[in-house]
């Protein structure tokens, strides 16, 4: 059995990037989440998997503050953020991407990353035009390289391919020194070549940046994570390393149709 690196790290220290204790979310009579307990260490890469309707996106929305939990608590690097507004969580270093691209199509790649960086900086309300030496511009250059968009910096977002737009979304999440990122199905609609590029980008992220990835493409999810949480009907079903999850017959039966090639 593969060594549970993530779990052993958590046992070794009491400091976690993200802690969920008994988190639940109801919409009227519908229970979307129930009793979610999760511990994620700083720098850990976690995949959250499950079939449609398992509660994965609701979990993300609860962590980011789009929805507040109806029960339980959420801590981010030791601070209780259960009732904090979305923008307050962003200022503390929490970022996310969405299933459906939310980009300004008339801006260039460089301008998009620049604005994302300025949006979380102390000078975000300044009316002065940026200089060539502006640190935010330097960040935009560096981040565009990290997501393999060097040659697209001056192209408008609307002219990018679907895969390049997904790469840009990752770039926006990287702006402004994030501490933890939630990736919501970043491989959706990508070609095999674009999926390989995505895997390379995620695996090359700085080691201090942890993340959770929701992904239906198991080949992507299992190659970019060190620990996996499986959800079913709004609850955690099982957890383990990618190897343990891939070889778990219960997972194969429920989520993979009896096997995974």
From TrEMBL:
PANTHER family to which the protein is assigned, alphabetical: AMINO ACID ABC TRANSPORTER ATP-BINDING PROTEIN, CONSERVED COMPONENT OF ABC TRANSPORTER FOR NATURAL AMINO ACIDS-RELATED
Pfam families attached to this UniProt entry: ABC_tran (PF00005), BCA_ABC_TP_C (PF12399)
Entry GO CC: plasma membrane
Biological process annotations from GO: D-alanine transmembrane transport; L-alanine transport; L-isoleucine import across plasma membrane; L-valine import across plasma membrane
Keywords: ATP-binding, Nucleotide-binding, Transport
Cross-referenced InterPro entries: AAA+_ATPase, ABC_AA/LPS_Transport, ABC_transporter-like_ATP-bd, BCA_ABC_TP_C, P-loop_NTPase
Signal peptide residue numbers: none
Protein name: ABC transporter ATP-binding protein
Record keyword Transport present: yes
ABC transporter domain mapped to chain residues: 18-258
UniProt xrefs under PROSITE patterns: ABC_TRANSPORTER_2 (PS50893)
Record has Hydrolase as a keyword: no
CDD domains named in the record: ABC_Mj1267_LivG_branched
Ranges in coiled-coil conformation: none
SUPFAM superfamilies, per the entry: P-loop containing nucleoside triphosphate hydrolases (SSF52540)
Organism ancestry: Bacteria, Pseudomonadati, Pseudomonadota, Alphaproteobacteria, Rhodobacterales
GO MF: ATP binding; ATP hydrolysis activity; L-isoleucine transmembrane transporter activity; L-phenylalanine transmembrane transporter activity; L-valine transmembrane transporter activity
């Amino acid at each position: 059995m593969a060594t549970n690196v993530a779990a052993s790290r958590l046992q070794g220290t009491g400091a976690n990037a993200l802690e969920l204790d008994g988190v639940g979310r109801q919409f009227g009579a519908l229970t979307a989440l129930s009793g979610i307990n999760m511990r994620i260490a700083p720098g850990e890469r976690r995949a959250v998997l499950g079939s449609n309707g398992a509660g994965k996106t609701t979990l993300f929305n609860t962590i980011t503050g789009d929805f507040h939990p109806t029960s339980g608590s959420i801590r981010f690097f030791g601070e209780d953020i259960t009732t904090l507004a979305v923008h307050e969580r962003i200022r503390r270093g929490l970022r996310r991407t969405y299933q459906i691209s939310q980009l300004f199509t008339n801006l260039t790649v460089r301008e998009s990353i620049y604005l994302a960086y300025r949006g979380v900086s102390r000078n975000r309300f300044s009316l002065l035009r940026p200089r060539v030496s502006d640190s935010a511009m330097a960040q935009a250059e560096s981040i565009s390289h990290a997501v393999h968009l060097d040659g697209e910096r001056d192209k408008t977002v609307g002219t990018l391919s679907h895969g390049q737009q997904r790469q840009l979304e990752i770039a926006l999440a990287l702006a402004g020194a994030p501490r933890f990122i939630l990736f919501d199905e970043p491989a959706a609609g990508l070609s095999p070549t674009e999926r390989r590029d995505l895997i390379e980008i995620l695996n090359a992220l700085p080691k201090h940046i942890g993340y959770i990835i929701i992904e239906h493409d198991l080949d992507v999810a299992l190659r970019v994570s060190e620990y996996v949480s499986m959800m079913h009907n709004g609850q955690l079903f099982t957890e383990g390393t990618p190897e343990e999850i891939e070889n778990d017959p219960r997972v194969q039966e429920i989520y993979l149709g009896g096997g995974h090639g």
